Amino acid sequence: MHPLPEGAPHWTQGYRELDLSEERAVHSALKHLGDYAELWYRLIDLYVRGLRGETRVEDEEMWQPWEARSELLGLALGNSKAAFDMALAGYYSASYGLIRHLLETWEHVAFIRLEPDTAIAWYQQEGEQSDWKFEPGDNPRRKRLRGEETLKGNLKIVERLWKEMSKGAHPTGEGLVQTMGEGAGRHVLGANFQRNMALLALDSGILANHLLLTELFHLIPQDEKWVHQLDDVVRRRVELHKIHPPH
């Protein structure tokens, strides 16, 4: 995935071997789960187009909350691509960790939308770094989201996916599956296609991206074509569940 220049030193051999393992994993992922991968490609395209949309903030006091949400969504875009790349390449622990980042970002962006005065906590004040940080569990932010009728359903999805992603993102028994090869006691070095783990990563990433794009829609108005294409991704995901159930 990252070719080295000609004449690279001998100590890049290990890196080359891992590169080849990634190529094999990507090939297998696209062969067996290409339909799911297509949806993530489409979501990234919508994401990029959406962030490039024009908007005006009429109320000067709302500029900082708008900027904070925009910057958080922009940060998540890069992590979305990285999570997708890792899911395809067979590095599921890395992908799961990045998907958790997307889920956290949704919480923060949605919370700022409801409580714009909290946006200031994201920026340095008088030389002191903000202590605003993500706190898993039943923290005040989640309580506020849970109390919003239009968001409590999405929060349930986030909490469920957070638990699923935590199983593989940390050094756990589930995470060790990534190293298992064919045959007892055989371990794979580098990337390794595991269908169930790849499917969980792809499906969870699609859901996380959809949540972020709904917040993007609240931030920057989108045209009917954009909305229709996003709805089509959601519809297609439901269809795929009948073919490739994620669990």
Your description of this structure?
With 247 residues, the chain is mainly α. The protein has eight helices and no strands. It has one domain. It is 66% helix and 0% strand. Helix 1 packs parallel to helix 7, helix 1 packs across helix 8 and helix 3 packs parallel to helix 7. The mean pLDDT is 85.
Can you give me a brief rundown of this structure?
With 247 residues, the protein is mostly helical.
Rg value: 20 Å
Portion of residues in beta strands equals: under 5%
What is the number of strand segments? 0
Mean pLDDT over all positions? 85
Unreliable spans are none
Alpha-beta classification: mainly alpha
Helix and strand run: HHHHHHHH
Largest sheet: none
Discrete helix count: 8
* Large-scale geometry: globular
How far the N terminus sits from the C terminus, by CA atoms, comes to 29 Å
User: What helical percentage do the residues reach?
Assistant: 55-70%
Number of structural domains: 1
Chart the SSEs and their pairings.
Blueprint: H1 13-51, H2 63-89, H3 92-114, H4 140-146, H5 152-169, H6 173-176, H7 195-219, H8 224-243
Helix pairs in contact: 1-2, 1-7, 1-8, 2-3, 2-7, 3-4, 3-5, 3-7, 5-7
Which structural traits does this protein have?
247 residues; mainly alpha; 8 helices; 66% helix; globular
